[in-house]
Fold this protein.
Amino acid sequence: MSTSIIASTATIGTDTHVGEYCIIGNNVKIGNKSVIGHHVVIHDDVIIGDSVRIDDGSVIGKLPMKAANSAVTKEQELPPTEIGSDCIIGAHVVVYRGATIDNKVLIADLATVREHVTIGKGTIVGRGVAIENYCSIGKYVKLETNCYITAYSELEDRVFVAPLVATSNDNYLGRTEERFKHFKGAVIKKGARLGVHATILPGITIEEDALVAGGALVRKNVPAKKIVAGVPAKPMRNVPEEQLLENQGWKDD
């Protein structure tokens, strides 16, 4: 006898296995040949593709929480969470309602993906990564362990973000009403790379194929194909030709 609770309006594809003590809500659609671990909660209306693996204890389609003084979380109607085919969702991951995840994405254990987030095909979201709301993450991006992507950020294709990188979006640090006019996260252009423990201040643009060295504090825009380092970060030299994205032989689809 199954210990899981599956709504009568949920649709589960052929050869899909659901573990013990799961809750699957109304109008959920799960494709074929998927594996849902134990103690997984899938909220109403979630759409999941074929050959998806969701590990133990994860929550998909969670509604946002709004604190009385929240600056960016609003009462709103959100579209259903969508997870494409061939994705892997690790253990104790939380994906909020209103997130859209493309095919072949891996989201590792303990990561959080907020509402109004899109994640492109083939991207890797590492262990403990937090992606806040209103973010766009491109294709084949790598977000390494415990990095933080602040709200209102945009990361283009093939961006690499090392462990413990922190982005920010509020130069007013939560003070005065003026801050509401100026919220802006980072814009990280195609192929840019951020080294371990770099800190990116609000509204910064890091141009294509730029490289931010580990531990740098970035308070000015970074030119394309330049290496910046230091506190504050300053241009050091050009990115070596053999490291440029155009010379890697990778093909996007």
About this structure: The mean pLDDT is 95. The first strand starts at residue 5 and ends at 6. The two ends are 44 Å apart (CA to CA). Residues 175-248 form a domain with the UDP N-Acetylglucosamine Acyltransferase; domain 1 fold (CATH 2.160.10.10).
